[in-house]
Amino acid sequence: MNLRALTSRLFCSLAAVAWMAAAHAADAPRPNVLVILTDDQGRGDYSAFGTPDIRTPALDRLFREGMTFDNFFANSCVCSPSRAALMTGCYPDRVGVPGVIRQWPEDSWGWLSPRVTLLPQLLKRAGYHSAIVGKWHLGFDSPNTPTERGFDFFHGFLGDMMDDYWTHLRGGVNFMRCNREVVDPKGHATDVFTGWACDYLAERARAKEPFFLYLAYNAPHDPIQPPPEWLERIKQREPNMNPKRQKLVALIEHLDAGIGRVLDTLDRLKLADNTLVIFTSDNGGVLANGANNGPWRGEKCHMYEGGLRVPGAARWPARIKAGSRTGRFTLTMDIFATVTEVAGVKPPADVDGVSFLPALLGDNPPEAQREFYFVRREGGIAYGGKTIEALRRGDWKILQDSPFAPLELYNLAADPKETTDLAKEQRKVFRDLDAALRLHVQRGGEVPWQPPAK
């Protein structure tokens, strides 16, 4: 680690220690934490971004009342790896999840390592009650179900995605659970998860210990199925909008209304002031569904910026200045380090994520110089079980968007839309980043990503 990075980490640690000491001295209650993760929401698919054809008052409220992250990145361009990074604070291939975990073994490309410590396990040491409501997507069977990996309560969906927001089945199988019990709720999945989250908050308002709630919606992942009345609203308001875009906007606005219900519940229960709410998405949106990924190239499943850049906001009325923003480069895995620091527990020494608590509290230390690594393993003819990767160092980014295509090199300061491949012109930069990328690939290769043979 260079001197600048070491100084930055020391500054961050001192700032966090000072904050924890002040909180303890004031005998302040430990903060609750609510992480809201949406599924395939594009970087530009909320109205606070400046997108004129969508209205998201609840999300806009988070950005207005809290901090906006201008450079928030998912750890992968697909679901399971980003979720594994959030739960472990590590690059996903280092914990056995380089690709999407599916119920079909022949098409499943990850297995969450039983040796790694998950966020709720750490928070339990600080007296937190932890729950997940919504999409898990990190395992179907023991030992990788939520309550076996540290959560005190699980009310949600084990799998990757439902075939239908109303039937909640995947391949004809019901993966809805209350802890380990199969349940069969009625209604649109977004409404179901919202209701369960509000119920959990009401129950925790009567408890003494702090809580950690991971609310993982599966919207706006396809199939794009908004409730009919929400779609009709968009058709009336935006009659000239592309029909695919109409359906997606309706699904997101319905999702936003659910998030609004959760925020209103925090208000009603007088929990909002001392609850840190972190909002982001697991990867970029799908362009074929009408997603808006901002001005950046690419989409979900791809290593270009549009597949990796996601919305990011944090609200904590007691501590975060309303309307603030940060240009700090932040990854999903940084949530792990931040939440543990807020809770006053020490994360494992080998986590890759870095706490952004100092930024939330208004400190502006020099940002640590670190590399950002992204990985996805996938099957099918297009991938053949191989991986695609990207690595960013400063303004430079090297990527391979197909396992059968050459590596590409971009300077994102001069070319943020990744239009001009400089792999042939900048050979030294290319060689240096290529070597660094290989080290990450080797490091990830130390961890099995398939379950042991039975």
Question: What secondary-structure arrangement, pairings included, does this model have?
Answer:
Blueprint: H1 3-25, E1 32-38, H2 57-65, E2 67-73, H3 79-88, H4 119-125, E3 129-135, E4 153-157, E5 169-170, E6 173-174, E7 176-178, E8 181-182, H5 189-205, E9 211-216, H6 228-237, H7 243-268, E10 275-281, H8 305-308, E11 312-315, E12 324-331, H9 334-343, H10 357-360, E13 372-377, H11 380-383, E14 387-393, E15 396-400, E16 408-411, H12 427-444
Parallel strand pairs: 1-9, 1-10, 2-12, 3-4, 3-9
Antiparallel strand pairs: 2-11, 4-7, 5-6, 7-8, 10-11, 13-14, 14-15, 15-16
Q: How many domains make up the 3D coordinates?
A: 2
Using the coordinates shown, work out and report the CATH topology of the largest domain: Alkaline Phosphatase, subunit A
CATH superfamily of the largest domain: Alkaline Phosphatase, subunit A
**Residue share in helices?**
25-40%
Given the C-alpha coordinates, what overall shape results? globular
Query: Under the CATH scheme, which architecture of the largest domain would be assigned?
Result: 3-Layer(aba) Sandwich
C-alpha termini separation: 42 Å
Secondary-structure element pattern, one letter each: HEHEHHEEEEEEHEHHEHEEHHEHEEEH
Give the overall average pLDDT.
94
| Helix-strand category | alpha/beta
Number of helices: 12
Overall radius of gyration: 21 Å
Approximate strand percentage: 15-25%
Largest sheet: number of strands, sense, barrel closure: 10 strands, mixed
- CATH class call of the largest domain: Alpha Beta
